[in-house]
Amino acid sequence: MKANQIKNLEINKLRLNNSGTYTCKVRNKVGVSTAHFFVKVDGEVKAEVKSFDPKNVVITEGDSISFTCSVLSGVKPEIWFLKRISNTEFEEIREETFLEMERTGITSKMLPVLSFNQSSRYLIIEKRGGIWKKNGSYVSTFALHNLQPNESGEYACYGWSNYGIGFRRSWLGVHPKIDEAKFTSSNMPYPPLSTRSTFLLNLPTLSFIVEDDGKIESKAKPNHKEKQNMLVLPFILVVILVLTLLSCVVFANILLKKRNSVKTNNEIEAKADFSSRKKTKTFKPNKRNNESEFEEVTLDY
């Protein structure tokens, strides 16, 4: 039977998230014994942004979205939300409050009662003075309402403390709404085929790509019909080319046969003309000055 066995647990480079309760359990034939130890890690640790979610998302115009930033820090940090406005500049997102008034046209010595409506498009759910903790991290959330396409861009969460600063970024893309375009006889530039026609716009899908170096690239992805058109067009061109080549071959054969036929007819006519013309030489006496001469006469028949 062995006794006085010692086991050590070593944790190098302690971090704040190493704080917590640790348990040591010993077991033998007699039974089980446990001991609990609580460890709290303090120190001058800079703020570290653990997460900023959602990460790189695309939504539709008019929708809303909430970003949550989780910051790990030795002391209570300050948390900012920012939006990139240029290659080197960010602007802080602040909560906006609007006062809506309706004109009544009534004059009175008494001040009218104004209705107050908080219709903020940028709403920071946790104030800086009321940041709460979750699983040992400080958490803050802000919501964006009724988003427009021009609000697409890069957003960032910054966590700051006296010992340092940390940040994370996320890309938000706002896709414009696509509605049915209706054309009537009054606004069509050419006579319509019917009194009223409705067409559905077949626009490409907009997508956003965020690379590791932070560069953002947007691409238009062709839809299914565009892909079909891209495949049909080369096929039509190939068919037209093949038909053109076949037409040229047929036309060349016709010309060659016609030329050979004309040549054969000319040869036949030449042979017939040659055989019908026979030349014979005869001589007849021609007496002039009592001299006998023979005159050559050619008869053709």
UniProtKB/TrEMBL annotation:
InterPro entries: FGFRL (IPR052615), Ig-like_dom_sf (IPR036179), Ig-like_fold (IPR013783), Ig_I-set (IPR013098), Ig_sub (IPR003599). The keyword Transmembrane helix applies. Residues 54-175 form the Immunoglobulin domain. It holds the Pfam family I-set. Residues 292-301 have a biased composition (Acidic residues). The keyword GTP-binding does not apply. Signal peptide: none annotated. Residues 277-287 have a biased composition (Basic residues). It comes from the Eukaryota. The chain crosses the membrane at residues 231-256. Coiled coil: none annotated. Residues 275-301 are annotated as: Disordered. Keywords: Membrane, Receptor, Transmembrane, Transmembrane helix. This is Fibroblast growth factor receptor-like 1. The lineage of its organism: Eukaryota, Metazoa, Ecdysozoa, Arthropoda, Chelicerata.
